[in-house]
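Holo model, pyridoxal-5'-phosphate. Inputs:
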Amino acid sequence: MGYEKSIEAFEEAYRVIPGGVDSPVRAFAGVGGTPPFIEKGEGGYLYDIDNNLYIDFVQSWGPLIFGHCDSDIETAVIDAVRRGLSFGAPTTVETALAEEIVSLFDAIDKVRFVSSGTEAVMSALRLARGYTGRDDIVKFTGCYHGHSDSLLVQAGSGAATFGNPSSPGVPADLTKHTLLAQYNNIESVKKCFAESKEGIACIIIEPIAGNMGLVPAEETFLEALRSLCDAHGALLIFDEVMSGFRASLTGAQGLTSVKPDIVTLGKVIGGGMPVGAFGARAGIMAHLSPEGPVYQAGTLSGNPVAMAAGLAALKKLKHRPGLYVELGRHAKKLMNGFKRAADQANIPMVTDVRGSMFGFFFSDKPVNNFEEALENDSEMFARFHKGMLDRGIYLACSAYETGFISSQTSDEMIDVAIRAASDVLKEISESEA
Ligand SMILES: *Cc1c(COP(=O)(O)O)cnc(C)c1O
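Output:
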């Protein structure tokens, strides 16, 4: 495969955009080489500007559960565009999308739309703090909740890839209210509650972590978090920006009996357009302006084009009840294939699957938290990633990301990916012999 045009485009971008990209992980720093510049998508495939064809297991980092250029979403967007791009006034499509979400998530009576996952989580935190009148929050190392100030502490993938877990420009005065605990380790959470002087407003967690690689929370751990929150009058926030509509139709909440107080959503609910949302029971949401005193706003919030895309995607999801079984079957087939290929090449690998999400680590032991994730062989990942890319398999360019199956991912595409993995891992192991 040639990447000449992408190399040129990257150099040109570099001159006018920091690092040549608008979101750091896209720069391929974790794996080396040049990111292919994308010309177009088509179902389960991507084409780059050098006319290379890839099977896409990134799907825009999650949103595209129906693959690229889904005709129903496309039609809904074009219809909306023809009526106007934005009004800054209420539209019925916002209510329609809100009704879909409320009908799916037990924990949500009311929902507010924003334009990104970052914004959703940032607003959810403010709401939790406003509702409880407390400042401290508990977050887990390796969980990513967007790039807002108080959450940019030990934040998984992008940060881990670049080795600067926190960021300059974030005042210590702000992050001092962010208490860090270890994923799947309840003692570390109890310690935060014991140490907090100001009282804890909320625990925020990815119930299925997807930003330190794929690392699901244990059911007993989630139950213990629920009890701790109840005992202390703190709120439990499930950040389902990634796992919502990905792990199941009702996200991680469809796979656990634990009910959160606030839920954040993003990615799939925009159908590929920029949408985020946060919701809770009515009594909590009543604290949000204009009903209550907690301020939150957005010029483009509930944008009619973005809402139309999201509504088309959710309606389609609801009308295909067997979809998640099919996505899960493909994800498992892919991971079993990778694992078999790794075994044959004598390379240690662990894998996991939740709905349409899949993850693998080059590691010889199970991964339950970020600290264990960091013990993976990230150099091996970089070599694997490059080998796969050269064979037309587009995987997330960091060892700490989750992969995604779309409805356009076929059995045949999975077979092609497994064969490629087998070739690449064999080549790596032979070069080391
Ligand atoms: C992607 C993600 C976010 C941030 O969403 P953006 O739309 O990128 O701002 C927040 N939380 C989780 C769990 C995510 O995966």
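The pocket of pyridoxal-5'-phosphate is lined by residues 116-118, 121, 144-146, 206, 210-211, 239, 241-242, 266, 276 (CB under 6 Å). Residues 160-165 have pLDDT under 50 and may be disordered.
Archived with the compound record.
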